[in-house]
Amino acid sequence: MTSRSPGPPLGRRFGHLLGAYGLLALAAALFLAFSLALPDTFPTLDNISAVLSNHAIPAVLALGAMIPIVTGKFDLSIGYGLGLAHVVTMQLVVHERWPWPLACLVVVLGGAVIGAFNGVVVEFAKIDSFIATLGTGSILYAVTGWITDGARIVPGPDGLPAAFTDIYDSRFLGLPVPAFYVLALTAVLWLLLERLPLGRYLYVIGANPGAADLVGIPVRRYVVHAFAGSGLVVGIAGVLLAAQQRIGNPSVGQDYLLPAFVGALLGSTTIRPGRANALGTLVAVTTLAIGLAGIGQLGAQFWVTPLFNGATLLLAVGIAGYAARRQLRQRRAAPPRAVHDSAEVRS
To answer: What are the backbone dihedrals phi and psi of residue 308, each rounded to the nearest 5 degrees, phi first?
Structure first.
């Protein structure tokens, strides 16, 4: 007769649930608190729609920033890439008179090419991802300035095609359609990272590139793929930004860099604590959106938003680092499981 091994202590189970779903509970608590403080404006459908619409592009960009983070890399060029993508979209549609679907397709594919170039610079030139993507981002900003000559791209009297602006302004089931783009992108990334071998390989690379190479994973190729995926998502965000703003502003992209990394890094502290993940990023962006909307309606000064983002980024990095160290200690304490996981990756 075999004895059943005791389950984890209650305190450990509670700690796991708190770590995995604490941020989600915080989002619900913030929504409830602001709804009680602002019952006439905050819990209304109009306000919810405005929050979803205003934070859709930061959410898409955060999901794009998350992909290289899975491999232990950072892409600091995403803000500059966003600015270039939306300026090129406006340039092709307004000045070159391209059909808007073709212009959007070229911009999205161009984003993937730029992302792949970032990956090549990082992996094959062996330049730290911070330095490499900061350098390529500066080049992208220069290209943006060259295209626009430092001026805004403004449509003529006829404006932009209605079908183009509708990709951001339209509604579905009573809610802004950009919210559904975010949900769809989250679902795709969750499937790729959590259910397919590609995601398994990327997580192994992020945890230990040396071990990934030893078990036969082509590290360089998959890191380039991760940067290319990030660039593709940035291109999508650039198209949406052009449809939202309806003008080409050469300096607007930099404003989205910090919120994107706050969402991506804060997302690594929830759902799957210790590693970047799509659902966690969605929860983090939602929490930030609720918080920013609430403090904005309470009459906060303009400087509160960057203060909130900066403080949250520091907190997210600290929590993510602690979670990663805790996960590493747990792996070291369970060598049989680690061996099993390595065998699973090889298969």
So the answer is: -65, -45
